[in-house]
């Protein structure tokens, strides 16, 4: 993360001044806003928001998906597998862009979506994220990595997810990675909840997602080091992989596109505590074109077609 952004966050934290921030995956376009500024950015967390809700739209949602071609995905998948078998990475979150045709604008999607975190950056993107990045409450920092997805409509879906060797191994890896990340900024790091399941409603049906909660204790002066704390933990482990630095290098080689704010983070600092999310479930506005970016974790146990289908399954809006 750029030094001037870290320093500004540290200064705002030291002064107890609330702010909102967006940090993109490659740290090229980080933004900081006043907490009450709604001129360009609208947002909602489970506890607060900066906008007045608009009436929900009526009528059927048109949602046509043109996913990235299987051949392009397969080429990237094979490259990732080569690096896995070469020992360069053992978990990599591979993502790709899909074109979407819909009768909703990004702003309408923002207002109509039901999600723990919603973000709309004017003329750029809308995000309806189910994944917490970190929360800080009274000096306790907690992270909630999300790894493991299944169609909730499948018979015994919960048991299938909890007993899927690939998904469980992937989840263990991310929990270990996040424990290590938290240990760089906090003490007494522990796993509070392991592999719990949430259900998500979408316009394409119900999904089950698997998460864990890890927490630790920050130093007393954490607020004046807010930017430093966040920078040490970025990028978010759940959307890159492990080991982190080498895996990010392979991601750039394999994906061959710019993630932008997708898989970055959004957060709100209220002067003392912080709430933030990972920017997943993300629809980008590119002139007159809408691009949905999605993906999933690849391990040596991954099957290309299964992972490709998961990428497509995640192209949804949480509008029931």
Describe this entry's structure for a reader.
The protein has 320 residues and is an alpha+beta fold. It has one domain: 4-Layer Sandwich (Anthranilate synthase), CATH 3.60.120.10. Helices cover 28% and strands 35% of the residues. The protein is built from eight helices and 17 strands. Strands 1, 2, 8, 9, 10, 11, 12, 14 and 15 form a nine-stranded antiparallel sheet that branches. Strands 3, 4, 5, 6, 7, 13, 16 and 17 form an eight-stranded antiparallel sheet that branches. Strand 11 and strand 12 form a beta hairpin. Helix 1 packs across helix 6 and helix 2 runs antiparallel to helix 7. It is globular, with a radius of gyration of 19 Å.
Q: What is the structure about, briefly put?
A:
By secondary structure, this protein is of the alpha+beta class. It has a single domain, classed as Anthranilate synthase (4-Layer Sandwich), CATH 3.60.120. Helices cover 28% and strands 35% of the residues.
Keywords:
single chain, 320 residues, alpha+beta, Anthranilate synthase, 8 helices
Oligomer: single chain
Low-confidence stretches: none
Strand element count: 17
* Helix share bin: 25-40%
Question: Which CATH class is shown?
Answer: Alpha Beta
Query: Ends: how far apart?
Result: 37 Å
Draw up the topology in text:
Blueprint: H1 3-14, E1 19-23, E2 31-34, E3 41-44, E4 63-66, H2 70-85, E5 91-102, H3 106-112, E6 117-121, E7 125-129, E8 132-137, E9 140-143, E10 146-151, H4 157-162, H5 165-183, E11 187-202, E12 205-217, H6 226-233, E13 241-242, H7 244-255, E14 265-269, E15 274-278, E16 282-286, E17 289-298, H8 304-313
Antiparallel strand pairs: 1-2, 1-14, 3-6, 4-5, 5-13, 5-17, 6-7, 7-16, 8-9, 8-15, 9-12, 10-12, 11-12, 14-15, 16-17
């Amino acid at each position: 993360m750029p030094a001037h952004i870290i320093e500004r966050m540290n200064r705002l934290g030291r002064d107890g001044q609330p702010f909102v921030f967006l940090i993109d995956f490659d740290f090229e376009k980080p933004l900081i806003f006043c907490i009450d500024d709604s001129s360009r950015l609208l947002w909602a967390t489970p506890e607060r928001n900066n906008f007045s809700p608009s009436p929900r739209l009526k009528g059927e949602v048109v949602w046509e998906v043109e996913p990235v071609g299987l051949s392009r995905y397969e080429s990237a998948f094979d490259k990732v597998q080569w690096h896995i078998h070469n020992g360069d990475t053992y978990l990599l979150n591979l993502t790709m862009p899909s074109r979407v045709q819909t009768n909703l604008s990004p702003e309408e999607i923002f207002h109509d979506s039901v999600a723990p975190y919603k973000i709309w950056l004017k003329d750029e993107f809308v995000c309806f994220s189910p994944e917490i990045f970190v929360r800080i409450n009274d000096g306790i920092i907690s992270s909630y990595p999300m790894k493991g997805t299944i169609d909730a409509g499948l018979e015994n879906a919960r048991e299938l997810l909890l007993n899927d060797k690939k998904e469980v191994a992937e989840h263990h890896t991310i929990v270990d990675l996040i424990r290590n990340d938290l240990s760089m900024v906090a003490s007494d790091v522990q796993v509070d909840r392991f592999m719990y399941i949430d259900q998500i409603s979408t316009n394409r049906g119900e999904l089950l997602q698997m998460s864990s909660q890890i927490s630790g204790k920050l130093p007393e002066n954490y607020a004046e080091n807010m930017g430093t704390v966040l920078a040490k933990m970025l990028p978010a482990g759940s959307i890159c992989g492990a080991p982190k630095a080498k895996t990010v290098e392979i991601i750039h080689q394999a994906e061959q596109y710019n993630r932008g704010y997708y898989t970055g983070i959004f957060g709100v600092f209220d002067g003392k505590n912080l709430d933030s999310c990972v920017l997943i479930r993300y629809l980008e506005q590119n002139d007159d074109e809408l691009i949905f970016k999605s993906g999933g974790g690849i391990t040596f146990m991954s099957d290309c077609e299964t992972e490709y289908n998961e990428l497509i399954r995640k192209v949804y809006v949480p509008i029931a």
